Amino acid sequence: MAFDVKEKTVLVTGANRGIGKAIVEEALQRGATKVYAAVRRLDSASPLVAEHGDRVVPVRLDLSDPATITAAAQAASDVDVVVNNAGVLKTTKATDADAIESLQYEIDINVYGLIRVAQAFAPVLKDNGGGALVQLNSVVSVKTFPDVTTYCASKAASYAVTQGLRDLLKEQGTLVVSVHPGPIQTDMGVEAGFEDIADSPDVVATAIFDAIAEDRFHVWPDVFARQVGAAYQSFAENVVEADMQENMD
């Protein structure tokens, strides 16, 4: 299911800044014909349009609003690659008074949002030959840090959903990719207190399209993430990526 993004159509959620913006630019650099910049406010994509012209097409999409996701899937009916990059983070410990509220907010965007995107776009990808669905998870999908416990929980859940999508969408020829960055130079990274050790968003964008070209599920794009990925590799290969159902039959 590996393929080159050249002459393909890509949609990126949260495309207006940070990792999302880097993904848009990497797709265009690799020869994508068109990139849908899926954002909550259409005007936030104006700088991308000003720089790249009609190769960037803004489309409204809010992960908390299912109607906008359905409408975006209808508007982007020619899409080959969907990158669900948008997400939210609260710096909340499990013992904080607002821990449940923070987790509810993060689950709505980071988990339910992924499910909404998959439900809306999986049929589109199938109609267009399979393509790829890319989910931005995190190293905190597999390792919890106490100061961002609720965020870690939401990303662990989104990783679980991504695993399920990998097996489900394989039947329709869709490659599913789970991306697990460590600290990255974004507004979210600053909010989490990682700006001093963060890597460039460009490394994430490059790793995503390399994984699509190489038919890989797990992506550990930066220095910190690769350390986690190396330790996790055996479990990933022998359990997560293995056909456990076949072994149970």
From TrEMBL:
Gene3D superfamilies linked: NAD(P)-binding Rossmann-like Domain
EC number of the protein: 1.-.-.-
Family annotation (Pfam families): adh_short
Claim: Oxidoreductase is one of the keywords in the record: yes
UniProtKB keywords: Oxidoreductase
The Ketoreductase domain, residue ranges: 8-187
Enzyme class label: oxidoreductase
A single MF term (Gene Ontology): oxidoreductase activity
N-terminal signal peptide: none
Domain of life: Bacteria
InterPro entries on file: KR_dom (IPR057326), NAD(P)-bd_dom_sf (IPR036291), Sc_DH/Rdtase_CS (IPR020904), SDR_fam (IPR002347)
Stated family: Belongs to the short-chain dehydrogenases/reductases (SDR) family.
PANTHER family (alphabetical): NADPH-DEPENDENT 1-ACYLDIHYDROXYACETONE PHOSPHATE REDUCTASE
Name this polypeptide is given: Putative oxidoreductase
